[in-house]
Design the sequence.
């Protein structure tokens, strides 16, 4: 069996060990005589899987007691709307920090439902940096930002202190990649398909006091309290996805937790950023150095034609997912937790070789 060097942006590489574990118990999950996919979501066997995922997430992210963990569906994109539905009372304003396409999309949904303002933006410079001058008013309903900009390859190193205004963060592309002080956030949400598991599960971590503000007339499925009250089992959850999430969390735990994973991520990113920085301008990184993402390395070559050749030859050499997002082009290597160091070393070697030959 040959595994690809998978640099996809999401769905993305999963740890080989996790896939092997899932394969080994695919037909008979822990003596039940069934696949996890075939268990009732109301059974004791499934309950153990569901609660283990919550316990592991609590342990790995050190989630305090005054937070709830939800497993929802609809992707991070549904959270763009669910957050304002639940948090943005009439007459209040949501404060959105724009750092890329995904925060623009979050803003777009908020504006359908209520009032929003832009408290900071790096749009003027093709989203190459993370804005530091933010305008936050104590009366803002919440501040929304995207912690890692999957498309532009920038990442917040430190989060702003929003004081009493709840900070809502879309962490779809860097959750579980580094240590986090969860107590600084009102809501953290993430589609699972980059660092947590397969697509189909959305993790929401919400501070309990924020649950009180939702209008009673919200549709049942769109209200956070529905899912809190039912332990995310109001309707049928994505059981197999949650099971895989629990295996990914066990894998991170075995590696030594998020601190250990962060160190590995730093060394992986360094391999590729060094190849860019030491190329005498042959490869040009999109992000400003102090805003560089450890998850998505974005770069350009001298011309679109050369980029096409690079991507084509990379694919032929076994590197998958190197083309930049369709909205901005260029090249991108997504190096989430499960992308092995060896894959990054191989990409670095390929970049050096390509430069020599072209
Ligand atoms: C930062 C970020 N937010 C949101 C999304 C959208 O996620 P979903 O497809 O789960 O709705 C993505 C997808 O790539 C993303 O990278």
Sequence:
């Amino acid at each position: 069996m040959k595994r690809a060097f998978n640099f996809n942006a999401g769905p993305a590489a999963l740890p080989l060990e996790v896939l092997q574990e899932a394969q080994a118990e695919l037909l008979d999950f822990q003596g039940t005589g069934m696949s996890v996919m075939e268990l009732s979501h109301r059974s004791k066997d499934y309950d153990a899987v569901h609660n283990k995922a919550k316990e592991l997430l609590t342990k790995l992210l050190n989630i305090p007691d005054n937070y709830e963990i939800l497993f929802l569906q609809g992707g991070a994109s549904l959270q763009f709307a669910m957050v304002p539905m639940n948090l943005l009372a009439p007459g209040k304003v949501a404060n959105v920090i724009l750092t890329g396409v995904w925060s623009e999309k979050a803003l777009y949904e908020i504006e359908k439902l209520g009032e929003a303002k832009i408290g900071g933006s790096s749009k003027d410079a093709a989203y190459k940096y993370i804005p530091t001058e933010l305008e936050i008013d104590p009366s803002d309903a919440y501040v929304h930002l995207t912690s890692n900009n999957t498309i532009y390859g920038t990442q917040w190193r430190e989060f702003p202190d929003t004081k009493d205004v709840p900070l809502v963060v879309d962490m779809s592309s860097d959750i579980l990649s580094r240590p986090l002080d969860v107590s600084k956030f009102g809501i953290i949400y993430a589609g699972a398909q980059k660092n947590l598991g397969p697509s189909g599960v959305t993790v929401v971590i919400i501070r309990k006091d924020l649950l009180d503000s939702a209008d009673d007339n919200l549709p049942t499925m769109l209200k956070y309290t529905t899912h809190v009250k039912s332990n995310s089992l109001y309707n049928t959850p994505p059981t197999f996805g949650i099971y895989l999430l629990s295996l990914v969390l066990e894998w991170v735990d075995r590696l030594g937790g998020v601190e250990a994973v962060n160190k590995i991520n730093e060394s992986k990113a360094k391999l590729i950023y060094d190849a860019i920085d030491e190329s005498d301008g042959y490869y040009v990184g999109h992000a400003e150095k102090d805003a560089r993402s450890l998850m998505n390395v974005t770069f350009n070559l001298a011309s679109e034609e050369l980029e096409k050749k690079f991507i084509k030859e990379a694919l032929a050499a076994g590197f998958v997912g190197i083309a930049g997002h369709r909205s901005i082009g260029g090249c991108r290597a997504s190096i989430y937790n499960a992308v092995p160091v060896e894959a990054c070393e191989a990409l670095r070697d390929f970049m050096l070789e390509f430069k020599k030959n072209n």
About this structure: The two ends are 32 Å apart (CA to CA).
